[in-house]
Write a structure and sequence with these properties.
Cytochrome p450; globular; single chain
Amino acid sequence: MDAVFDPWNPDFVADPYPAYAELRARGRVHRFEPTGQWLVPGHADVSALLRDRRLGRTYLHRFTHEEFGRTPPPAAHEPFHVLNDHGMLDLEAPDHTRIRRLVSKAFTPRRVERLVPVVERLARELVDGLLAAGGGDLLADVAEPLPVAVIAETLGIPVSDRALLRPWSAAICGMFELNPDEETARRAVTASVEFSAYLRALIAERRTRPGDDLVSALIAAHDEGDRLSEQEMISTCVLLLNAGHEATVNTTANGWWTLFRNPGQLAALRAGQAALSTAVEELLRYDTPLQMFERWVLDDIEIGGTVVPRGSEVALLLGSANRDPARFERPDELDLSRARNPHLTFGAGLHYCLGAPLARVELAASFGELLRRAPTLGPVAEPRWQPGYVIRGLKELLVEV
């Protein structure tokens, strides 16, 4: 099994999909000893387990570390875990339910709707720069700045401070890779301390001078007298930045690289033979930005005749599920007109991505601008992939217009 699933191998990271096909052919669940996880590759199982209440993003609402057979994290890592463990992505009911309800009162569909002209303006300005330069790095010049600027504008973070956000996010997200080393943990802790202090000061300022921004709305959000604590607000803001841009950045760059390698589909999209919204869903499916979503087994479960005991961790392979021929016709073909597309890129169940509507707005804006205004956009060189597997993306994507 180790030879098939090799997430630290650059060749595997560059193209994990043949290995996924072999995993699906071998069975519904596989023990992976290097991480002590159970790999689940099939769409039906991944979709069901994302909704299964016998699994959780945390176990601390029911067990201590010791009761669950786990070693507590080192004390030196505490700032990262305090930040991460108060975000709704890593909580279960009743805390998750309460926080998501309160955040939903602030991060409303109307707020996303009001962001559409902002997103379109930012995308237009970034594409202006790329066109004026005759090309550049699509990742650094368009894909990264757009969602970071959108989230920063949403939170009310001044333009002068926005350069801090991406490095903080990248350092924190390093902890979501498999078996992170101590240097990765050190960088994540430092970023957690600095980002938390920054947001604490921003929240204090908004308490005295509220504005029309999400931080002010989070402060004001209440439900039957219940409010978010300061730590919950800080963790929510960090989660919105991290989750709110990693998927968009990688879907944009990975998506354009996919289009360049499928010129017939790109030509059809440029000719209007496929709806942009449908094409975006297919790009989200075809090369999934978040390859794996991990859950703890809170009560014994059975998958395909194999009992996965309480205390285990399952690794739900979203990238594999999105290429499962049992769910998708011709799954390894890019079909920008694919009408039935139940991909799992944004998850499912209680932890379905709260920012999915905003991500779709951002992707439609950036792809739309480039399709309209850069009809000869093409790659200069074959890109290299970042070493990370869980959050999978390119190092750069050099293009000319």
